[in-house]
Amino acid sequence: MAHKESCNTISENNSFNSPCRSQVAEGIGNCSIENQINPNNPPIPIWNHEQNQLDFINFSISPERLAEVVEGNNIQCLQQYGGINGIATALETNLLMGIGGDGEDLYRRHKAFGSNLNLEEKSSVLAKGLYRFVLDSLKDTTIILLLCCATLSIVIGIKRNGLEEGLLDGAIIFLAILIFVNMGAIFRFCKARRIKKLSRGKNVVGVMRGGKMGHIPVSEIVVGDVVCLLTGDRVPADGLFIHGDSFKLDDDPVHEDHNYYSKYPSIFTGAKVAEGDCRMLVTSIGGNTEKGKLMRSISCHQREESKLQAAIDKTNSRLEKIWLSLLLLALVVQVLRCFVWKSDQCDENHDPDPKGMKNAVEEIMKEAAKLVKRQAVRINGLVAVLCILISALRDGLPLGIFISFAYASKKMTVYHAMVQKLPACATIGLVTTICTGVTGDLGLQHMKIAQLWIGFHNLKEASDMVADHEVLNALREGVCMNKSRPRRGYSAFVGSESSWAGYRGIGTKLHHYYNIDGTKQTLDEDKRAMFKKLIEGIESDCLQCFAFAYKKLVIQEKEKPDLKLEEEENLKPIESGLTLLGLVGLKNPYPPEVRQAIEACRESGVKIKLVVGDNINMARFMATNSHILRPEEDVKGAVIEASEFRNTSEEDRMKMIDKIRVMANTSPTDKLSMVQCLRRKGEVVAVTGTCSRDSSSLKEADVGLCMGDNSAEAAKECSDIVILDLNFVTIYEILKLGRCVCKQS
């Protein structure tokens, strides 16, 4: 049987380090062997506040520990719990058959882990009846004023035209108000019912229970369920990836690693399946999900109104009071005219003081009545003009603001920005701080080689040539394989330009390395430590480090090869026996437009903070080269790890927030905490985001900026403006336009 040699080349980022892609949430450090799941552990006691006693639920893992595992999102911590099989055992779930799904089983799971309802859904469960909508309508100031007018109209009508005709006119006015109130209430009631009905029909997901596939409402999902997700489905809960076919979420549109979810198995609520299908094990539902906790944090910290909205509401409130006061004054004048003038007409000989004792107040009222009688026509015209003027003042301001915002939103489309909430057109002009992540022009996508190491030798010049052509050929082949899909019989990890180096942790898989002269050397522990220091030195120079390694494989040729099976085998990661070809340090000079936009923001008084999930060296590199961080600003406290911010008290956070320019290794909780601190300091904050885990920060900020048309649907729904071209320069352009809107308004 013939044999042939095949080269398997792998590119690695920080190959001798294995940091997590996603940041570990607070408390994840408790993942230790001592806490490893044992199915024979005694049940965990849960305190029942209602009955003031301990309830023992027969599950050997708590909701808090499950949430820590998922939010940590790294295979190493999961392995300490026995992998996904260990988690499934603890939850009494069969990964193929699902849970039993009988009434007792569902009751136990609801009791132990709660229900799959978030805060918004819980409030909607208490559905309003029609009478509640009617009562809400009656609280409107305009309706109250109309009722006052109707009452006074009855009084005036009875006085002028008699009881029967006066009551008839008043009843017609009351009937008109009643129809107006009820029609609006009925419309809102029907709309709420229709939305609820549609959401019930739409929010259905496939689950495996008792070995049978079925569809249930999302609200009925329990912890331990095996959920089957198809293209277009929304992820209904937090969970762990079991297996899938070409599975990809809109949450992370960058990676193209076929084994991505084998390394980062967590799937989070709110993401949408962009491609393929998968099965996931539900581990957290409702308020225990990451999204539920963040949304609860927003509701606990009472969200303040934006400054723009507060200013508009204040102006409207003043106009409302003026409108109400003037209309009531006009009604009082009409009542005085009616009663004083009418009584004088009915009894010309009426003498209020038969004894001849004149009262000063009565004299004044009589003179006023005469004046009103003479100016009756003028006063009628004045009242009409006054009503028109007041109505124009009351409704004209919102109309004028709406027209201004609508014009600005249309103007912003020129800069590839789509406005979803009109007030954001002006609020963006009031922004004082921008918390940005990695936008399209801040990302590390177009890189240039700054350093190339073969063994422990740095090739600084062209004359420093590698002696062995095999090393050069393998390097060339590795670079080419990371830009195109390999031919049959060859294996490589294939990804996009920004993700091709995202395969971590091959340090333990390396057994040999090449020297500059092309000789192969054994990689012992001392040499491994030397390479680790070398990588740290490359990163300290603000360069991104990549490792190229390869392994020769012997592939047996078959008479009838299965191409699909062969491709799957080729794409499996190599576990050992790799030979290090070289280390590459890449730099990324940002385009001048980005630096100019950032400098322009600074000059206009807008502070920019870089909040990223990358390590601190890479975050400092991005901030320094893009001019977010100036050399004189790189002081203690300007560039920090998110853990420093997370583990300090609320008071200390408020003190350090102004100094922070860059925060690295951030989780969604850290990003939300920063936004909340800035808003409490009186800053008007804009936040960028792309994935569903950014939803809480986008919602909390004064202006949420969703970056990219291909961003997660959940992020778009929570944002105010969608930046279609992903560029920071666009943010500066719409900020300038927003300031023009504020000046005109």
Summarize the structure.
It is found in: Membrane. The protein is an alpha/beta fold.
Supply the key terms.
745 residues, alpha/beta, Calcium-transporting ATPase, cytoplasmic transduction domain A, eight-stranded mixed beta sheet, disordered N terminus
Binned strand content: 15-25%
Overall pLDDT score:
73
What distance separates the N and C termini? 82 Å
Name the poorly predicted regions: 1-47, 49-56, 122-127, 342-361, 483-504
Gross geometry: globular
Keywords: Magnesium, Membrane, Transmembrane, Transmembrane helix
GO cellular component, one term: plasma membrane
Subcellular location: Membrane
Transmembrane segments: 141-158, 170-190, 322-342, 382-408
Which helices and strands occur, and which strands form pairs?
Blueprint: E1 3-13, E2 44-48, E3 53-57, H1 63-72, H2 75-79, H3 83-90, H4 103-113, H5 119-125, H6 130-138, H7 141-161, H8 163-202, E4 204-209, E5 212-217, E6 226-229, E7 238-249, H9 260-263, E8 266-267, E9 273-284, H10 290-300, H11 307-346, H12 360-374, H13 376-412, E10 417-419, H14 424-427, E11 433-436, E12 448-454, E13 457-458, H15 469-481, E14 491-492, E15 510-514, E16 520-522, H16 525-540, E17 544-556, H17 563-570, E18 578-587, H18 592-603, E19 607-611, H19 616-625, E20 639-641, H20 642-646, H21 650-656, E21 662-664, H22 668-680, E22 685-689, H23 695-700, E23 703-707, H24 713-718, E24 721-723, H25 728-744
Helix pairs in contact: 6-8, 7-8, 7-11, 11-12, 11-13, 13-25
Structure notes:
With 745 residues, this protein is an alpha/beta fold. Among the domains are: 31-116 and 221-288, Calcium-transporting ATPase, cytoplasmic transduction domain A, CATH 2.70.150; 307-347 and 359-406; 448-586, no CATH class. 45% of the residues lie in helices and 18% in strands. The chain is built from 25 helices and 24 strands. The strands form four sheets. Strands 1, 12, 13, 14, 15, 16, 17 and 18 form an eight-stranded mixed beta sheet that branches. The protein has an eight-stranded mixed beta sheet with strand order 10-24-23-22-11-19-21-20, with helices on both faces. A six-stranded antiparallel beta sheet has the order 5-4-6-9-7-8. The longest helix has 40 residues, at 163-202. The termini are far apart.
